[in-house]
Amino acid sequence: MLLKILVLYALLNIVYSASEHPILLIVSYDAFKYNFFDTKLVPNMERIRKNGTYSDYLINVFPTKTFPNHHSIATGLYPEVHGVIGNSYFDQDRSTLQKMGKDMFSYNKGVVPIWRLNEDSGKGRYSGSMMWPGAVFPYQGKNITYRQDFDSKIDWYKRIDTVITWLTDPYKPANLVMLYIEEPDTHAHALGPHSQTVLQLLRDLDNITLYLKEQLEKHKLADKANVIHLSDHGLVGVKPTNFINITQYMKNGTYNMADSSPVLQIYPKKGYQQKIYDSLKAGSQKNGHFKVYLKKDFPKQWHYKKSTRSPPILVMSDVGYAMDDLIESAPLYAKAYNFTLTNNSEFGVHGYETNVTEMRPFFMARGPKIKVGHKVAPFHTVDLFNLFTKILEIPHLPNNGSMGNIVEILTEKPASHTFGSILVVTAVGVLIAVLIVSAAASIALAIVKRQQTIATAAALNKRFPQTFVRNDAVEVQHLLEPEDA
Ligand SMILES: [Zn+2]
């Protein structure tokens, strides 16, 4: 009987095994606009939002396209640094149009995405990517342990089931998983963000969010896993009456073009740059609904100029307008989605500047390291990397984000932040507060240390010789610096 109980116990442990490291699951819903919550079609997501920490929206990176933003989420870097400057770009050295592929994600060999950093930060840390854009490729010459390339035929429930098997693998349990869902983006491009299909998709996304929560609970992961739900951008509806033919201003064969509305990258052939620019500029003044920029004039806030990949000329249509690519694809959408193309047909477009309200993504998080019932001010997509490293307890690398914007999300504030806040009260208050905080911290530390010692002392000693001490020193130093440093 005792043997039977022991065997059963062992089996249960295998079934419910999970990483001893902090667990982080990041779920991206492509083009889930910040105010889709106002539709009231996502009650389960709303519940998570209110029970965890959320911000009204995120400030994403330019262009507000899928691949640049997913890689900025994963690296804390602007597109001009990580080099994913659009959903496509033109390779000027090889004269080829580059789309999703290894080349797109290998511009800067120094880039270390969060999934690589996690695995490199200690033994027993395993990362997984369920279709996250760019995570299927090797970084620093290495692939992560679990990876599934994008495949729209694998349904969302199956994706979640697979993610759960990674998190509960008895031998290599993942402690970081990136999960990507391609909706509502795919259908919203073809049918517009206000279509009935997209509204139904919001309900479907709400249902899989509940399913994910239930599966985490079923596998005893709910109290261990920190789950961040977010998106890369929103979208805006554009009608055919607002399509602009900009290629009429350029002579065929004198240029190459990449990406799609509302930002078209123009690569003039040798000797044609000035002519093309002048012609587009004249067209822009005549039409009034698109702008033309030379690379040297790209606005600073785009963080888009420094990459050698950035195009010599960029054309951007006004909000609510699109260009030649949509003139071509609109009838194809009509055919594929079985509707009649009229001037009232609506298509979803994103890629505009980050200060365009409709481009805003959402953010919400829940888990043992996340504050409950809390709201934080909108922060930057590039800040997320610092949030991830903090949750995962791994060293953060230099990046374009700030730590100051995300400390409010976490249950445990770094010591220097707490100290900084206390400084504003009176001298007597300081003394009392410091005494209380010190006493509380000592007790908490003692309890935490005792629990850690009992549970994982042997494992931690093996995995992290001195790393924890060094990391804490780095964090404190960073927080003492100005946020813009
Ligand atoms: Zn997207």
Characterization of the model:
By secondary structure, this protein is α/β, with parallel strands linked by helices. The protein has 14 helices and 18 strands. It has helices at 2-15, 43-51, 66-75, 79-82, 114-120, 156-167, 185-191, 196-218, 273-287, 324-336, 384-392, 415-422, 427-463, 467-480, and strands at 23-29, 53-55, 58-59, 89-91, 96-98, 127-130, 146-148, 176-181, 225-230, 236-238, 255-258, 263-268, 290-294, 313-317, 347-349, 363-366, 374-376, 379-380. The strands form five sheets. The chain has an eight-stranded mixed β-sheet, with helices on both faces. Strands 11-12-14-13 form a four-stranded antiparallel β-sheet, with helices on one face. A two-stranded parallel sheet has the order 3-18. β4 and β5 (96-98) form a beta hairpin. The longest helix is centred in the last third of the chain and has 37 residues, at 427-463. Residues 30-31, 66, 185, 232-233 line the site of zinc ion. Residues 1-17 form the signal peptide.
Task: Give a quick precis of the structure.
This protein is α/β, with parallel strands linked by helices. It is built from 14 helices and 18 strands. An eight-stranded mixed β-sheet has the order 7-6-8-1-9-16-2-17, with helices on both faces.
